[in-house]
């Protein structure tokens, strides 16, 4: 990702766009550009922290897809798994960048999310993806944040 950021202006543009959206929702706790680009070694970066790694993977996947399309390379179909679900939804033009970045992965079961987290606020958020029995993604309308 770092090499493409430095050598490909379109990849750079997408990483910067996604960094802006992520910074808005994580209250400045961390920045994609800092963890991926500015910190030059894995030891300096928190890239191995799941809460940073998964959004970073999303950003790289989206920027790489944009780069491939710019080279006239288009997917015949899109398959995703786990952290790739959000990128696939965006690349398939099912969600806007803002909607996709606001999706929240949780280490809870579908039942726990439905009966504990979302109980009484179903009109504000819903389960967007069930990745495995103990990892779901919820999403909500931007105006409810």
From TrEMBL:
It comes from Adineta steineri. GO terms for molecular function: transferase activity. It holds the Pfam family Acyl_transf_1. This is Malonyl-CoA:ACP transacylase (MAT) domain-containing protein. Keywords: Transferase. The lineage of its organism: Eukaryota, Metazoa, Spiralia, Gnathifera, Rotifera. Transmembrane segments: none annotated. InterPro entries: Ac_transferase_dom_sf, Acyl_transferase_dom, Acyl_Trfase/lysoPLipase, Polyketide_Synthase. Residues 1-104 form the Malonyl-CoA:ACP transacylase (MAT) domain.
């Amino acid at each position: 990702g770092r090499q493409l950021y430095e050598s490909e202006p379109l990849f750079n543009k997408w990483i910067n766009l996604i960094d802006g959206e992520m910074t808005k929702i994580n209250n400045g706790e961390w920045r994609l550009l800092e963890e991926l680009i500015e910190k030059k070694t894995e030891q300096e970066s928190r890239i191995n922290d799941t809460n940073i790694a998964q959004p970073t993977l999303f950003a790289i996947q989206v920027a790489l897809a944009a780069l491939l399309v710019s080279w006239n390379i288009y997917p015949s179909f899109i398959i995703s798994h786990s952290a790739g679900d959000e990128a696939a939804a965006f690349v398939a033009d099912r969600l806007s960048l803002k909607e996709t970045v606001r999706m929240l992965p949780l280490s809870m079961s579908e039942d726990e999310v439905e009966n504990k987290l979302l109980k009484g606020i179903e009109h504000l958020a819903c389960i967007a993806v069930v990745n495995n029995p103990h990892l779901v993604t919820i999403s909500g309308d931007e105006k409810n944040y």
